[in-house]
Amino acid sequence: LSKIETITIPANVKSLGTNVFESCTKLSTIHWNTPYTTIPSYTFKGCDSLQAFEIKSSITTIENNAFESSGLTTIEIPTTVTTIKSQAFYNCEKIESIIYPITSIEYETNIFEGCKTLTKITIRGQGVMQEYSTEKQPWMSVRDKITEVVFETGVTSVGSFSFYGCGVLKTITWNDVGTIKEQAFANTGIETLKLL
Questions:
Q1: Rounded Cα–Cα distance for residues 93 and 91 (Å)
Q2: Please, how many CA atoms are within 13 Å of residue 178, restricted to the half-sphere of its CB?
Q3: Buried b (16+ CB within 10 A) or exposed e, 137-175
């Protein structure tokens, strides 16, 4: 499997096992044509040529280490995802930005651990953002890396403690935000606020 560059998963394939594409170092393109609900553990571990991957709207669960050490440069978590398990994107050193939904997700605080170049978070959705705490945020393990946060049109409220402790956060961009809850930006280094 180490030489595979493109994979097409047809609709008649109903499930994948763990580690199924692990260490496919040349894999760069995946055509995902089946309504899976889960991306299993270690599925794309070590796929360092995989720069982009669309998480389909059928996905509800991303298992632990699913994309560990892959080559992703950006990732969008759709609103259908309800669970992201431990170290799902562990050591994805090329990820520069993520798009994260306002919806309630069960997550571990280390899902982006080791994402050394992750500096930008975009919050997407319609309505009120999920609540967080000083010791529990999806980006907890990279709080010292985040420099920019964008709230897209439709996000009306920033959840409590959302970016608490993001000490190098400098720039916030928003349009529809009307409410900023308790200590959402406490202990940050915000210098610039942009209104779209």
A1: 5
A2: 6
A3: bbbbbbbebbebbbbbeebbbbbbbbbbbbeebeebbbe
Contact 58, 81 (CB under 8 A): no
Q: Could you tell me the CA-to-CA distances from 68 to 38, 152, 162, 164, 189 in Å, in that order?
A: 16, 28, 25, 26, 30
**Residue located via tokens 């199924």:** 20
37-72: pLDDT as tens digits: 999 999 999 999 999 999 999 999 999 999 999 999
CA distance 59 to 113: 22
Pick from 90, 98, 95, 82: nearest CA to 38: 82
Give how far the C-alpha of residue 71 lies from the chain's centroid of Cα atoms, to the nearest Å: 14
Q: Residue 14 class from Cβ within 10 Å (0-12 exposed, 13-18 middle, 19+ buried)?
A: exposed
The Cα 194–Cα 86 span in angstroms is 33
Could you report the per-residue pLDDT of 119-146, keeping only the tens digit for each? Answer: 999 999 999 999 999 999 999 999 999 9
Structure confidence by residue, pLDDT tens digits, 2-11: 789 999 988 8
DSSP annotation of 37 reads: S
Q: Residue for token digits 């000083």?
A: 134
pTM above 0.70, yes or no: yes
Angle (CA) 81-87-92 rounded to 5° is: 100
Cα–Cα distance for residue pair 9/34, rounded to 1 Å: 7
